[in-house]
Specification:
Length: 150
């Protein structure tokens, strides 16, 4: 498995997985959000995971938040915005691998905390540096899409 930062070359594969994670969002909305992320490489990114055939099978999106993040005491905070693993690739450690990659990116930028908007009960196995904030409907959808029931 290869994890790499998403680029314009892998954009369409990433977008396909975003549509699988957030099917209620319009394709245009997801495309615009993703393009905006690529245009802000200093504070937002997506990592993709490729299988042995170079197919994109998972992704994680994160931002650096400089505003207050519930449960955190430092700034900036790395914030996991979304994560998705195709069903046939789940339970193989890909989500953990992606989160560790995001955490390494954030640590390299001086972040001491890594947060997401899920409750502690959904964060089983999350690294100890993570903070968890109030659960949002989008976070619930992310978790359900990755095989974790609410």
């Amino acid at each position: 498995m290869v994890v790499e930062r998403c680029t314009r070359e892998s954009f369409e594969d990433w977008l396909r997985l975003r549509q699988a994670l957030w099917p209620q969002a319009s394709g245009q909305e997801l495309r615009l959000e993703a393009a905006a992320m690529l245009d802000r490489p200093d504070d937002t990114l997506a990592f993709i995971a490729r299988d042995e055939r170079s197919n994109v099978v998972a992704f994680a999106e994160a931002t650096l938040r400089h505003d207050y993040v519930n449960g955190c005491s430092t700034s900036p905070v790395a914030f996991l915005e979304g994560i998705y693993v195709q069903p046939q690739w789940r339970n193989r450690g890909l989500a953990r691998l992606l989160c560790n990659t995001v955490e390494d990116w954030a640590a390299g930028l001086g972040c001491a905390e890594f947060a997401s908007d899920v409750t502690r009960s959904f964060a089983t196995g999350a690294p100890s540096a993570w903070s968890t904030t109030a659960k949002s409907s989008r976070a619930e959808q992310d978790l359900e899409a990755n095989g974790v029931s609410a």
